[in-house]
Amino acid sequence: MEGVRRWIGAHPTSRVQTSNRRPSSKVEKHQKTHQDPEHDHRSTEAIAKRLLDPIVSNEEKAEYQQYIEQCHFLLQAPPDEAEAADKELYEKFVGKAMGDVYDWSAEVPLNFYASYAEL
To answer: Which among 92, 99, 95, 90 is positioned nearest to 72, based on CA atoms?
Structure first.
């Protein structure tokens, strides 16, 4: 780094760097090239507005309603109507979503996980 400073100091520029441009013209040019966030759907402002005011289509609402009805059917169905494995799997995912079921098993000893964490 010291060598670079010496090299720059050995070759000073004799001219003074000045700008004849008006500062406002730069700002005006930037404002002209900048798109309005309403029209630029990729801008942060437009994305934030969409996320703060989400719109759910009727197709999605119908799909969600179908999942709710399926859940009620699986939970209230007699054992012979719903497959036991499907019902257990569904209950596991519902429990995980609610925070009741964890991804890890309590039966696995901690040294099993520690072997993966060691460097």
So the answer is: 90
The SS3 assignment for 78 reads coil
> pLDDT per residue over 83-114, tens digit each?
766 777 777 777 777 777 666 556 666 776 67
Alpha-carbon distance 112 to 86, whole Å? 30
Q: Could you count the other beta carbons within 10 Å of the beta carbon of residue 90?
A: 16
Q: In sequence order, which residues have a C-beta less than 8 Å from that of residue 38 and are 6 or more positions away?
A: 46
Which residue's entry shows tokens 């719109």?
55
| DSSP state letter for 18 | -
CA distance 102 to 96: 6
For the residues of 25-68, what is the DSSP string, one character each? Answer: HHHHHHHHHSPPTTT-TTSHHHHHHHHHS----HHHHHHHHHHH
Q: Does pTM top 0.85 for this prediction?
A: no
Give every CB contact of residue 91 below 8 A, 6+ residues apart in sequence: 75
